[in-house]
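[Q] Does anyone have a clean structure-token version of this?
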Amino acid sequence: MTNGTARALPLNAASTWLAALAAIAFLALGVRALVAPAAAAASFGVPVDRGDGLAFVQAFGARNVGLSLVALASIALDLRLGLAALFFAAAVIAGVDFSIVATHEGVSNAAKHVGYVVALAAFGGWFVRRP
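[A] Here you go.
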């Protein structure tokens, strides 16, 4: 920053790098859903092999790309609380994802989404608590 103030999201902090890596991972998942929707759906936990369903998988891929770009922009613009809000929103989305997969494919296929909820909410909390 040119005005001499410290960044709320220091570029040399591990938390900033972890947030950037998480954003890039979700970006990659989104791109995968756009270009290989059947494989992405199977990995998500709800296999889809027909046209209409594959189009929906591409739509959730676009969602992930958009959220990832907002996260990366929040890091670049030093918006710590905005980044925290984004991680909390992503935790809610992961919770809904769990519900969808559990309803259609069983809880065992949805279990990984619970991990995403916990990790994303914890990460959001980390950024809220930072001074």
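[Q] Thanks! Anything notable?
[A] The chain has one domain: 14-129.
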